[in-house]
Amino acid sequence: KHMVYIALAALVDPGDEVIVPAPYWVSYYEMVRLFGGVPVVVNVSEEQGFQLTPEQLEHAITDKTKAIILNNPSNPTGAVYPKEALKAVADVCVKHDLYIISDEIYDKLVYDGVPFTSVAALSDEIKAHTILINGVSKTYAMTGWRIGYSLSPALVAKAMTNYLSHSTGAPGTMCQCAAIEALSGPQDEAEQMRQVFEQRRDLIVRRINAMPGVSCLKPSGAFYVMMNLEQILGKQIDGQIIGSGDDFAKLLLEKSLVAVVPGSGFGAPNFVRLSYAISTETSRPAWIVWKAS
To answer: What would the mean pLDDT of 214-225 be, rounded to a whole number?
Structure first.
C-alpha cells in the first residue's frame, strides 16, 4: 500500500488526472485525491471479464492525464489480464506518454495454469513507463511484516526515495531479512498455499452459482470473488428492500451473522466481495447459516 502511495506522491501534481479502472482496490481512489489529483474512474463490466479495454482507456485520456493504476491480478475481482490484452492497454499508455502504476502484489496467486505477465516485461518502451509495485504480504502470507517494494525508471525511483527519506523510517531489519528469505528461498510452501487457494476458489464459486439470485465469475487470480446481486436488487427481506450491495451486506450480517464487503467501496455497488483467504473449515459454518437464511 505504501509504495502505491509513494508512487503517487512522486508523480501527481494538483489537477493531474489518474485513470482508475473500477472495480478498484478501495485505497486507489482516495490516494489520488490526497495529492490533489483527480481520479478518473472507468467502469469495467463483468461481461468483459473486469478487464479494461484499450478503447475505454483512449476515451478516458485527456491532456491532464498523468497515469493509470493497474492491479493485475485484481483485488477485488481476481481478474488476470492475458498478455495480448495487457499489451494493448500498455501501448495506449506509451502512445500518450502515461505512467503505468502496476500493482502486482498477487502475481504468484494465479490458477488453472493461467500465465501471469508483468507489464514491465512486455517491452523496453513499456518498462520505461512503468512503476511496478509488489511485496511479500500475499504470496508468503507475511501481512504483518509490512514489506513492499517498487521498481521504476531511475528518475521516478529517485523522487520516491527522496519522499520516503523525509516521511518515514526504514522497515525493521528482521522484516527485511525475512523478506529476502521468502523471495530467494525455496518456493514449495508458497506453491502449496496457492494450490489450497485454488481449491477454496473452486468451492466458493460452485456454492455461489448454486444459489438462486446471485452469481459470480470464476476468478483467475488473487483470493477474492465478486458476487453479482443484480437479480435480487429491489426484492425484500423481512420488509427491508435490497437496493444495493450495502443493503445486502447489512442484512446478511444482521440476519445471519455473516460478513461480506459491500462493492460500493470498490466502485461496484451491485456486488459484494467475498474472500477465500480463510480456511474451508472456518468458512463452512457461515455457508450453512447463509444457505439456511
So the answer is: 98
d(CA 2, CA 171): 12
Residue 11 pLDDT > 90, yes or no? yes
Domain boundaries, the chain: 2-175, 188-292
pLDDT > 80? residue 286: no
Q: How much is the pTM?
A: 0.95
C-alpha cell at 59: 476515451
Length of the chain in terms of residues written: 293
CATH numeric code, 2-175: 3.40.640.10
* For the chain, the helix, strand and coil percentages under 3-state DSSP, each to the nearest 5: 45, 20, 40
Q: Closest by alpha carbon to 271, among 223, 218, 233? A: 233
Cis peptide before 23 (omega within 30 of 0): yes
d(CA 197, CA 216): 17
* Helix H or strand E segment including 245: helix 245-256
Q: What tens digit of pLDDT does each residue of 235-280 get? A: 998 889 999 999 999 999 998 888 999 999 999 999 999 999 988 8
Q: Which CATH superfamily does the domain covering 188-292 fall into? A: Aspartate Aminotransferase, domain 1 (3.90.1150.10)
Same fold, 2-175 and 188-292: no
